[in-house]
Amino acid sequence: MSIAGDGAFEDPLFLIPRIVSRLYTEWLVWTYPFFSIGRGFTAQSSCELRRSSAPYIKIGDGVRLDRDVWLNIPFTSKCNEPVLLLDDGCAVGRNCVMSAQHLIHVGRNTIFGPSVLLMDHSHELESAPTADQWKKKGGAIRIEEGCWLGFRSVVVCTEGELIIGKNSVIGANSLVTRSIPPYSVVAGNPGRVIKHYEPSIGKWVLGSRALRGQG
Questions:
Q1: How would residue 8 be classed by pLDDT, with cut points 50, 70 and 90?
Q2: CATH number, domain at 89?
Q3: Deepest in the core among 33, 180, 192, 199, taking most CB within 10 A?
Q4: Domain limits for position 63
């Protein structure tokens, strides 16, 4: 009996969704008015991306969107700059959601596990109607190059700027609401740096040291 890995062929029916996704990707590239879109972009046909949001999205070379990814721009302003940027080589896992009102910038070669949420605004209720909250609450999220965001991790910034330093790892089910230094490993809810590589001394240090001075 054949098992996976011994050269057995996949079910030919698996080719159908691949073909559909290829056609969907071509449709997006040629008909959606993205701010800019790079070469080698691929998106599964189940992704949700509205045409009205495309002018505020900048996509680099080799970016991949897996099944059911949602790129959401909840409030489109009249600015001429993108608010959601995915740099070269980003790989976004299935069921991920990015909701950008002000700025979400994902650095190159960043990898998302399934069901990751990035949100640069809040739904906090005040005296104003709920629809107006989109215009008032928000910050900016910058994820530097080479990061890994694990399964169901959440990054939320409701004011100021939240930076995840390069080559950091955000553990599964972690909640990140403040900046993280480069070369960090984050876990928990709320998330904390459990260890951090310090290049100047060539060693890993405890998270308590790594968080000093971080916003």
A1: low
A2: 2.160.10.10
A3: 180
A4: 13-210
